[in-house]
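## retry 2 of 3
previous attempt timed out at serialization; input unchanged, resubmitting
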Amino acid sequence: MVKIGDIYLGGAEGSSTQLIFNSGIGFFLETDSKISNTLPFENGKWEVELKEGQRSIIARCTEVLPEDHILDLGFRYCQQAIDLLSVEFAEYLNIQETGNFHILLYKKDDEFFLKQVQTAFSTITARVEAVVSDTITGIIVPQPAPPEPKLTSGLRYYRLSQNANDLYEAYRNAFLSFEFLLNDIHPIRLKPNGKLDQGERGWFKEALKTINSKIKLIDLVPQGTVDSIEYLVISQYDNIRCKLFHAKGVAGQCQLNIIVPADTFNRKDVGDAYVELMILLKNILKEYYNIKFEETCVTYSGFKLMMENNLSNGCSLFINDDDSPINGNLIERYTFPFTEDQLVKDKQLDQIRSLVSPKKFMENPSSLEFGGLVSELKYDINDSGTAKIIGEFDKNELCKIRLIHRTSLLYPRVMFRFFGLTIFYNRDGLHLSGIDKFEINIYIKLKNKGDPQK
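## retry succeeded, writing output
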């Protein structure tokens, strides 16, 4: 059977009750659970389990389900389980790295497949400084000092948005920043009796018309949009803000009229609206408040070329049972500069080996082995700023390793002349048994400096 720590995920041998679960999904909590409990859903067809002292939370199902159903339903039931248990036991739990780290088991053609999915962000940082020089002498011509930034409480909400660990909280604070700035630029009108002169939606539309005189909103919405202001009113105010900020809906249609945070694994609608809102926010802060942003802009096509160059130069994936802790909870990143000095290369190799498997390195520092299994890799790079690296292990290879704590990816970043090492750490351990194939999917996603944090 497949287990994460001491919790049964699914697989051929069945659970302690001899009941076989054909589908399962595992996530990781931000802190150790102080609760041991198993909750049934759909009359026992689904179960959610967590154990005291573990970071894992598991949802499993007796039915054979497609991958996307396992993800969506399993995530929802995990959230509902920790809602109840957190309130009952006053131990408030939260899932860590939602969308970036999970383990999924599914059945297809009478075979069990296990997939470990993790995400690493490739943050691009560069500083560009423009200067003006005399065309004849080449001497740099001093420029007048830029205008002083205007401080506003809207920056507080902006900062809170970027510091939030949760997408929904990030959006809420970003919209509060947006709302504050709009009201500062285009204040809500009041009647002589002190009551509002217009509804909130009407004011929002008017405020957008005001900023449209300085900021070309048509450039910030999807191509082909006819009315940029109406588009933003619908996409931001109607579809997300009202549904996320309110907890009441029309009787019998509540779920259609509100957005319950973390109620679905696919957060695309809120995520897309958040990115759109942050771009709009930054334009307002630049134009009206003289705020500068240190940022870079690598295009998706540029990222694709970089990653093709990087991955075609070779990358390595290692899995092992070394449970030595890392500095981060789930993910740790290291860099090593390119060098032609063989002595430095040898030292780098030793350091990489000591990070990939500290225990193996301590046992035999002179060995060139990394410990565990090394996979042949395939990769795929799409046009939306994402590279997918795939490592596969069949039954014969899985006989060599029964437990995984560390998954390490080493790949060159040719343009910046260094190697990147990313370690994904599962402290509870993934026990491999009763499966026919194990697949590791690592997504590397572009993130320019200055992009939204979530």
